[in-house]
Amino acid sequence: MSAISLLNPKAEFARAAQALAVNISAARGIQDVMKTNLGPKGTMKMLVSGAGEIKITKDGNVLLHEMQIQHPTASLIARASTAMDDATGDGTTSTVLIIGELLKQAENLISEGVHPRVLTEGMIKARDKALELLEKIKVEGKPDRQRLYDVATTSLRTKVDRKLADQMADICVDAVLNVQREDGIDLHMVELMEMQHKTSTATTLVRGLVLDHGSRHPDMPRKVENAFILTCNVSMEYEKSEVNSGFFYKTAEEREKLAIAERDFIEQRVKKVIELKRKVCPPGSGKSFVVINQKGIDPYSLDMLAKEGIIGLRRAKRRNMERLSLACGGSAVNSVDDLTEDVLGYAGSVYEYVLGENKYTFVEDCKNPLSVTILIKAPNKYTLAQIKDAIHDGLRAIKNSIDDGAVVPGAGAFEIYAWQELQKYKDEIKGKSRLGIQAYAEALLIIPKTISTNSGFDAQDMIVKLQEECRENVGPVGVNVDSGEVLQPVDAGIFDNYCVKKQILNSCTIIASNLLLVDEIMRAGMSSLKG
Amino acid sequence: MNSTREIITLQFGHYSNFIGTHFWNLQEASFTYEENNKPLEICHDVLYREGVNLKGEVTYTPRMLCVDLKNGFYQLPDVHRGLYDLNCSNLDEEILNSSTKIQTIQEEKIPSNEFFSDLVKQELLIDDDSEKINIAEKVYNLDNDVKIWSDFLKARFHPRTITSIDEYKHNDSSNVFNNFAQGLGLWDSYIMKETWTDNLRLYAEECDYLQGFHISMDSLNGFGGLACKALEYLKDEYSNKTIIAMPVLSDNYILEDENSELQAVNTSLLFSSLFEHSTMFVPLTTSSGGWIKSQSHLNLDYLSYKNNLDYHSSAILASAIDTFTLGYRSRFGNDSMQTMCTRLTPLGRKAVSASIQLPLGFESKSNLLDYLQNSTLPLWKPISPQCTTEMSVAQTIVLRGITENMLYSNNLIRDSKNPSHHCTSPSDLLKLFLSFCDHVRMTEVHSFDSSLETIAPFPNIFSQSINQHGFVESSSRSSTSVVAKCAAISGLHNSNSMRDMFIALKNDSSKVKGSKLSHMFNYDIDVMDYKETLENLLVLSDNYLINDCL
Known about the structure:
The complex is a heterodimer of chains A (531) and B (550).
Chain A: H1 3-7, E1 12-15, H2 16-35, E2 44-48, E3 54-57, H3 60-66, H4 72-88, H5 92-111, H6 116-137, E4 139-140, H7 145-157, H8 162-179, E5 190-196, E6 202-206, E7 209-211, E8 223-232, H9 241-244, H10 252-280, E9 288-293, H11 299-307, E10 311-313, H12 318-328, E11 345-355, E12 358-364, E13 372-378, H13 381-404, E14 406-409, H14 413-428, H15 433-444, H16 446-454, H17 459-471, E15 478-479, E16 486-487, H18 489-492, E17 495-497, H19 498-517, E18 520-523
Chain B: E1 7-12, H1 14-29, E2 48-52, E3 58-62, E4 64-70, H2 90-97, E5 102-106, H3 114-124, E6 162-169, H4 180-186, H5 190-206, E7 212-218, H6 223-237, E8 242-249, H7 251-256, H8 261-277, E9 280-281, E10 284-285, H9 310-324, H10 337-344, E11 353-357, H11 368-374, E12 381-382, E13 392-400, H12 426-437, E14 442-448, E15 452-453, E16 485-486, E17 488-495, H13 498-511, H14 514-518, H15 527-541
Parallel strand pairs in B: 1-4, 1-7, 4-6, 7-8, 8-9, 8-10, 13-14
Antiparallel strand pairs in B: 2-3, 11-12, 11-17, 13-17, 15-16
Helix pairs in contact in B: 1-9, 4-6, 6-8, 8-13, 8-15, 13-15
């Protein structure tokens, strides 16, 4: 009889072994779902919603978000894993697998009478050791382009088709290297622009900006070269509102006058821009002028601009204002008073591209673009979404490895190495907590095991081969998913992010030990506890 | 050059979307596709946008963004989608081509209801006359089928219209979205802060003369908080546009949720923010309690509806919105949102109440003069919580469905001294009538010939004595025919009784115990802020004290 049932007869509860069984079966359940996704040879999953909507993915993070998880323990694990993805952009599937495996290993020991507390102590010791080992195995040094490319392909191949992954990796590396500055990398400076296109599936890197809107005046030029770019946040819209409301006028004429003054006020702003244009682009100089405004521009003002041959774009994205000044130079202005040449940016060519009802404006050939755009073209929504997810993850992987200044050999190399070293470490520890270390070491092996199973090879075979190789101390060894043999991940160019591995070790241990220490599950909704 | 003054519509929450669905269905029902027609009274371009899809076909979709929780809606491929989709036949090829294995996880298929099946059939049989189904004349009973708003959504949307919140699920008892602070927090998610604002910007970019926003939000749950953040964003980015906000309160939520004290709290937080960020706001509900449980609800003479069905109550509110916004949506008038708001909200009295009479209760072959003379006052019933429409300082009344030839009976002997015998339009007559019996200082009256198009999926809530054209008839309507259209009157009133509403709201919120509040204010709001908000409501309610303001 649980204590809560005295207080609330309606509460549901599960105690001790039963509670543990609930948690373990949930963790195993979610592990089973995710298992087949791990590694470059993992399966894709197609999710079809009740209304027939399709989503195809292999990314653990996307899957966990899409799947309707009912079980509270399972959804706890899912939330922890997706939080992991939010922080680092990778490692969701691994987290789920290792938590499941840790609980499975623990289950055997607990059924033989080991107290969960002893086990978790051992696991925490093992975790600390594993983190030390991670420091040893990591490959330090500022990563070069090839290394970054390797990291990106490793991460992306586990999420999308191989061909696509290699292509994306290339683009992502170029993008990140372009926006890299002294004070770090701001991934917001990489704009992702989607285009739903009838036939082609192509993703390209534009060294400049692509805006998702175009000019709204028929007479404005569609393509200009050698363009000065003015980015501003100034309303060029005539608002009747301000004169209509209130007590500013007594007679109709007065109101009319106010209205004209108001109109004039906006007109002056446009005239100032035109003035600047005349100054910097004297006729015959072959130069042109583009205004990109965060606020609106009404047809009347557009007309004035068009007469001068100026391209005027209205309602630009707030973040694009920052990107524009990074891509083209110059700076965004909040008022058109005292305009000088210094605030202007420069782009070699600006042109418009129309696709259905959508207009795109390309701002290209910038001198030193510190902001770039990745242009995604695909025929349907779900492909667009899939590519977009992949690029997000690729960018994160590259940023992580630059920030870490180190990478970790992949293909299960770290797990094998940690297993071997933990075996040695276990002997140094006295008491029952070594059981926890043993369980931890075994649990880590789930990663190479699953990778080989998913590639169609026998897991035990593979593990034995790897353990033998590892003992000979030839450096890190991992699974070759194509041949089923042992490979050297450093030579093969398979690298994982250091911070991802570190996060996995930390969060898995904490969640697994918390779940193990649960000895009672109570369920009593707010409604039944009312009063 | 096109000089339509565009409006962007924003909807937050499930009940708002219920109302929205009815609203867009009503709009769609009032379209005419015949050429050489005389131009419609109502200018649909104000709310709709014209676009082109990738196949080069012209599309006409609402300029609207709506937000709902995951599983709160679905989109059937045959009914709702397809406007912008390309043929998906290459899907299978692609899957076959890719080297990786694919595992399919299929959810349970959503069953299609009778209305949708007919809609699909009608589309397929469009060239085939033999078996044409006339949806407009068929009687549907969808009361039990409609669970969520997409169950009766006929209008098609632009792909960027719907935003789905994945953090919370619709009707999820383990992770409910029932407090204001949750909504505030949700604004920081990528889908709102990036995707939603971008979608809004794309609509705004298309508009030449954007005049403002219609924004409706559920006021009892977390969506109030989300909408509140969205309003702050609008204020910032679209600073001098008019914003008419419509917080909506569903009776259904109160009955369902055990934790209903929070709903008064959510509502007061929302209302106080609306005072700050909107140009005018109109709380809408059919139950007289609004944020608290109450037995009584809106009672209209010729309607028998179930107040606990969102499908029914939202239809009435949607009819009201459709009617009272006609003033600035007409093709001929040059009224704008701004002028209407300025007229209705003197001296910081930003909250106004709404009213409706649906159907009008106009006997067929009768005339407006007789109708007005025999009617009981007021002509309408309030649809704002805990307030009346009397003692107003300003009001706007819209009458629809009454044409000029229904003004007088044929055998009226005109008395030259009686001004009511010499009106030329229904609006003149109504205005004259109101000036005699009502003591409102500023009354604006509009009248429109076009009636409310109440064909399916509008619910069958009319009593049997209403005929197919929406007029009262002595013989009852046959059970196989529907009311296809009806006349209605709806208005906005800046009434002194709004003060009572605020005081009631403040009192109900103060009653909520601190222990209930503590888990609500986990972030963003603390108890001090909240107390201040309540005091502020009282201060604002004082705006409604001064009677002789103008």
